[in-house]
Amino acid sequence: MNIHALRLYTKVAEYQSVSKAAEVLRISQPAVTMQVRNLEKEFGFSLIKSKGRGIVLTPEGEFVYQQAQRLFDLEKDIESKISQVRNSGEGHLTISASHIPTNFLLPEWLSQYKALYPTRKVQVKTENTQQVIEQLLHYQADVAFVIEENEHHPDMNYQHLMNLEFCFIVPIGHRLAGQTVSFEELMEEPFILREEGSSTKDLLMALCKIHKTPSPKIGLELYGMTESIRTVASGFGVMLAPVIALESYFQQKQVARVNVEGVEIKRPVYACTRKNDKEVLPHAKAFLEIVRRKGLSNDRKAFDPTID
Predict the structure, then answer these.
(1) Which member of 83, 127, 130, 299 lies 3.0 to 4.6 Å from 163 by CB, making a disulfide possible if both were Cys?
(2) pLDDT of residue 308
């Protein structure tokens, strides 16, 4: 494969323009066009097509663009890690995780890791599940932690760590606090929903499909689990949340569980690595060993003392 031509093509795809790409790259437009045509001959399909005064990517061209981005992200990652080793003698650990693992699981693991490797730098990026997966695939993280129910991404390895229990909560004085209701009845209440890409929101929508009910009424839509729970604790709305995040709110009698007939929710937590990596980098492998040694195959549960 002609990597130089592929690099030029990614610029064409990025700007949706041959002329703009040529301008940014400071080479002639015919030279860029020729390199794209050479790639098309090599691949055996068209990458771009004309549209008005510009171009658009074909479906095949979009696929090549996405794969090329990952290739050049890997190149940047290699350069960054070489620079780290040159400057400090050891690599950095970059972790990407969704909100629940970051807030309720990672602190204990990171504490153990830093006790063993005090000089290693660690960066944690917190995003929703969809963004975490993208960061790992684009070499912006060495390892990722997600709560996942949907079909696994084909380019990632998933190692099951534990199951987390989820439940529905309302403010402590709510009429449904401590009650057992049908799923349909609960969906009539105003809900606090997470942002698009949140695995918790995806779970709630999946439950609606299973129970053949309309999507819940949206009272608020918030980015982040903690912000959503605090809003319920302040007196508004219903939400689906992991029990591990609710312990202090239950103890302080700020929120209460709502039991739903026939619904018991447990979701798996996974450690993720890239499938196309021949082996996990040493610093990431060391961190994963700590996670495994903590015996995280057991479910994590919490109790609700507000309900007798």
Answers:
(1) 299
(2) 40
